[in-house]
Amino acid sequence: LALAAAALAAGAEGARGRAGASRLLAWRGGRTEKVAVIGSGNWGSAIAKIVGQNVLDKPGFDKEVRMYVYQEKVNGRDLTEIINTEHENVKYLKGVKFTENVVACADVGEAAAGATLLIFVTPHQFLGSLCKPIKGRCARGARACSLIKGIEFDANGPVLISDIIKKKMGGMDVSVLMGANVANEVARDEFCESTVGYRKEANGRAWQRVFDCPTFRVSKIKDVAGVELCGALKNVVALGAGFCDGLGLGGNTKAAIIRVGLGETIQFCKMFYGGIKDQTFLESCGVADLVTTCFGGRNRKCAEAFAKAGGKSGWDKIEKEMLNGQKLQGTITAQDVAKVLRKKGVAHKFPLLSKIHQIAFEGAPVTDIVKF
């Protein structure tokens, strides 16, 4: 009887799994989901590791994950060759292995061919050259998710990266993933959380399923703008935290920077966008991401170096010496934020963000970080 009961239970569990896969296939019109990762830096490689394992573990997915890799030579070998033979991005995520189903492609169109789910995780300044070949190769009805922590601005104010992707991809629905996610820690399977911001509930569920796993827990909220702006502005606040570290100031001071920075982030979001949800700022994309970025990450680290040099070392030099070919986002965003706030005549309402820009680009002494 015990054996029979066990067999029945196993059969029921298998039926539930098959039913779940069937529902997913029905929702996609009988197609499996095929995931492509557009970008292969530190964060892109970390997320490819998670997604590569998830598509193997969960039904309803094509088991191959293609990852677009900007071709570089490492010790005389193509980076794509190294990834595809050694299953490791030795330049940007050294010491972490991909599952063998993650395939590096130097051609972005090849990487996106047939994909129903596109993960954009590349510096946003390269989107213009990447989207056109992707648009011609991805599957009809494909959806995208942006992991890009930056923002653009035009004459009217901030422009979301997700909206740029949507426009360049012919109106494609674009969600976002932001959270307290230092890439190296994520890649080492250290427990963390993240947040999907979505416009369409079904797509929010789909992206949650792509990313969520026991060590990378993903919540979702219907607030693309709020989630995305948190991911951009926290890098500016992290510059302020780095200035504090470079000056040798303690935890009390950094806590003040984080508190004021969160308040100005909320104010900025609600000034420029409607429908922002208060709950967004309590998710991983909000206060949690701000905290972890102000204690770790490249923006804080480079700002600390800037402060220790008395503000005399240029950002390009610091970036080149410390980031192994990667780019800072906080400095770019700080300049754009200052420009739009001044044009709107509201810079005085954002004293911390304005002070960070003055120190970083206008010659104000680093010690002024506590004078706002």
Topology:
Blueprint: H1 2-27, E1 35-38, H2 42-57, E2 65-68, E3 73-74, E4 77-78, H3 79-86, E5 102-105, H4 108-112, E6 117-120, H5 127-135, E7 143-146, E8 152-154, E9 157-159, H6 161-168, E10 174-178, H7 183-187, E11 192-197, H8 201-211, E12 216-221, H9 224-247, H10 251-272, H11 284-295, H12 298-308, H13 315-322, H14 330-344, H15 351-361
Helix pairs in contact: 9-10, 9-11, 9-12, 9-14, 9-15, 10-11, 12-13, 14-15
Summarize the structure in short:
By secondary structure, the chain is α/β, with parallel strands linked by helices. It is 51% helix and 13% strand. It contains 15 helices and 12 strands.
Describe this structure in words.
By secondary structure, this protein is of the alpha/beta class. Helices cover 51% and strands 13% of the residues. The protein contains 15 helices and twelve strands. The strands form three sheets. It has an eight-stranded mixed beta sheet with strand order 5-2-1-6-7-10-11-12, with helices on both faces. α9 runs antiparallel to α10, α10 packs antiparallel against α11 and α12 crosses α13. The longest helix is centred in the N-terminal third of the chain and has 26 residues. The radius of gyration is 22 Å and the shape is globular. The N terminus is likely disordered.
